[in-house]
Specification:
The protein has two domains: about 1-70 and about 305-365, Orthogonal Bundle (Hypothetical Oxidoreductase Yiak, Chain: A, domain 1); about 70-185 and about 230-285, Ribosomal Protein S8, Chain: A, domain 1, CATH 3.30.1370.60. The chain is built from twelve helices and twelve strands. The protein has helices at about 10-20, 30-45, 55-65, 90-110, 125-135, 190-200, 235-255, 280-285, 290-305, 320-330, 335-350, 355-360, and strands at about 5-10, 75, 80-85, 110-120, 140-145, 165-170, 175-180, 205-210, 215, 230, 270-280, 335. The strands form three sheets. It has a seven-stranded mixed β-sheet with strand order 2-3-4-11-5-6-7, with helices on both faces. A three-stranded antiparallel β-sheet has the order 9-8-10, with no helix packed on it. Strands 1-12 form a two-stranded antiparallel sheet. Strand 8 (about 205-210) and strand 9 (about 215) form a beta hairpin. Helix 1 packs across helix 2, helix 1 runs antiparallel to helix 12 and helix 3 (about 55-65) runs parallel beside helix 11. Bound molecules: nicotinamide-adenine-dinucleotide (NAD).
Length: about 375
């Protein structure tokens, strides 16, 4: 761990981040939802979608693009199909409410399609698959991003997509669910911000500079002049990441939200997500016990593959996040000094005393 990184005990971080989020004027329920969702992203190892987003949220709020204390609105209720509008409310609240409605309908009808538009940043999409899995439901989520375009299509030299995440979750009684959750870019955009804040380069074949040439400098997706992230899959398989990102745009964007990335949002701080979710109750579709027995047997069979040279283990999606959550819950959450400074500056911009936030985090001040 570098000297420039603070390791903040979970209890202190909970306290400090709740202080900051109160600066949005949020209800206590919203403070809890936003703080716990962001901190959980850090706990799972996805610092890109954790508390480091708060400076962006603060800027979006001050600009009028993020509306605290907003709840999801039902635009169409067709029983097993819901079209919902997030009205630029905190994604941590809107996402939870949208999933709760979808879960209720999937329990009643066997499945539900939730088309959610206009939510502010939904954070780590795996949180929504975890919510569905905790209710015993299988789920799939295709998400688009309305912000500045940041991902080049396969073969393209400039950005045309967001990092459009795809996520699927499968519950398994008596075991942890399988949660596959990733950005369709080769790395998440927030990971370039984290790398820049730490003064690190990103791996080759992740980024293009502003002229469309390969670079390892994370700044090309953080500060102008902007380049682009590449879709996942590399030179041989980039058409697959690019194709999935495209589908996220068509389903999460055009179908669910009614807006795709081509809308020019480059001058705005807000980050809007559209999400097309499908929730399925295995009890309604099949024999849950037989389905789960087969899924468990398959999981064990996959994990029995001999470990290849250069790897430590064969992991199933969701395992890395749970391992990291257990470790960081016990040992504290690392936050690099630049990100922490930006967080305290965001607190000040919201009228919250940064010294108090530092004290709450145990960082003096
Ligand atoms: N809201 C938004 O606009 C938005 C946009 C992009 C990404 N995101 C979020 O960013 C987060 C990070 O995305 P990412 O692309 O950096 O994730 P990532 O590259 O770390 O991949 C994570 C997925 O891969 C699995 N995984 C990781 N290592 C594995 C291994 N060795 N073996 C098997 N499975 C493994 C994880 O369990 C997880 O399902 C996600 O939670 C995503 O939802 C959100």
């Amino acid at each position: 761990m570098s000297d420039n990184t603070h390791v903040i005990p979970l209890e202190r971080l909970n306290h400090a981040i709740r202080l900051l989020v109160r600066g949005f004027g949020s209800s206590e329920g919203e403070v809890e939802a936003v703080a716990s969702n962001l901190i959980d992203a850090n706990l799972t190892g996805h610092d890109s979608h954790g508390i480091g987003m708060l400076p962006r949220y603060a800027a979006a709020f001050l600009e009028g693009g993020l509306k605290p204390n907003t709840h999801v609105k039902v635009q169409l209720d067709a029983g097993a199909m819901l079209r919902l509008d997030g009205d630029a409310g905190f994604g941590q609240v809107i996402g939870h409410e949208a999933m709760a409605l979808g879960i209720e309908r999937a329990k009643a009808h066997g499945s539900c399609i939730v088309a959610l538009g206009n939510s502010h940043h939904l954070g780590r999409i795996g949180a929504w698959a975890e919510q569905a899995a905790a209710a015993g439901l299988v789920s799939m989520h295709f998400v688009n991003v309305i912000s500045r375009a940041i991902v080049a299509p396969h073969g393209g030299a400039d950005a045309r997509f967001g990092t459009n995440p795809f996520c699927a979750g499968v519950p398994m009684t008596g075991r942890d669910p399988v949660i596959l959750d990733f950005a369709t870019s080769v790395i998440a955009q927030g990971k370039t911000r984290v790398a820049m804040n730490k003064g690190e380069l990103v791996a080759p074949e992740c980024l293009l500079d502003n002229t469309g040439r390969p670079t390892c400098e994370p700044r090309y997706t953080v500060v102008p002049p902007f380049g682009a992230l590449l879709p996942f899959g590399g030179a041989l398989g980039g058409h697959k990441g690019s194709g999935l990102a495209f589908m996220c745009e068509l389903l999460g964007g055009a179908l669910a939200a009614g807006a795709t990335q081509r809308s020019d949002e480059s001058s705005k701080k807000r980050v809007l997500n559209g999400m097309f979710s499908v929730l399925v109750d295995p009890d309604a579709l099949t024999d849950r016990a037989a389905f789960e027995a087969e899924a468990l047997a398959f999981t064990d069979w996959v994990k029995a593959s001999p470990v290849r040279e250069g790897f430590d283990d064969v992991l199933i999606a969701g395992e890395p996040e749970r391992a990291r959550r257990a470790q960081r819950t016990a040992q504290g959450v690392p936050v690099d000094a630049t990100t922490w400074r930006e967080i305290t500056e965001a607190a000040a911009s919201l009228g919250v005393d940064p010294a108090e936030v530092n004290r709450a985090a145990g960082l003096g001040g």
